[in-house]
Amino acid sequence: MKAKDLRERSQADLVELEKSLAKDTFTARFKNFTNRLDDTSTIRKTKRDLARVKTLLREEQLKAAAGAVSADGSKPAKPAKKAAAPKAKAASAEGAAPKAKKKSTKKASE
User: Which of 41, 44, 50, 72 is deepest in the core (most CB within 10 A)?
Assistant: First the structure.
């Protein structure tokens, strides 16, 4: 499927196609696991088609959100960004305690 062809479809068609492709992907993966799938490239093809459909649906969703204006005239708030993970503090030479060495679990041969 080409993205150009998918853009001509309606939202309802794309939602139905998304469900259908998700089901096809699942059945192809299941058949591959049970060694009943003849052409393994169908898994990759259906996954890519599914990604194209999801991308188009998300584009439409973002267009609708960008065009929407609330009753007071302000634009909707942007989604919150993910919080950055705290960085590990660098141990200073004075305050850092030396690491204890692991004890060897091997027994000495006699």
Answer: 50
- Integer-rounded Cα Rg, in Å, for the chain is 27
Q: How far apart are the C-alpha atoms of 42 and 24, rounded to whole Å?
A: 9
Q: Say whether 3 sits in a helix, a strand or coil.
A: helix
| Sign of the torsion angle spanned by Cα atoms 86, 87, 92, 98 | positive
pTM tops 0.70, yes or no: no
**What are 68-110's pLDDT values in tens digits?**
855 446 655 666 666 666 665 555 555 566 666 666 666 666 5
| Average pLDDT value for the chain | 82
Q: Determine the Cα–Cα distance for residues 27 and 46; give it in Å rounded to an integer.
A: 11
Cβ atoms within 10 Å, residue 28: 20
Q: Do residues 52 and 1 touch, judged by C-beta distance below 8 A?
A: yes
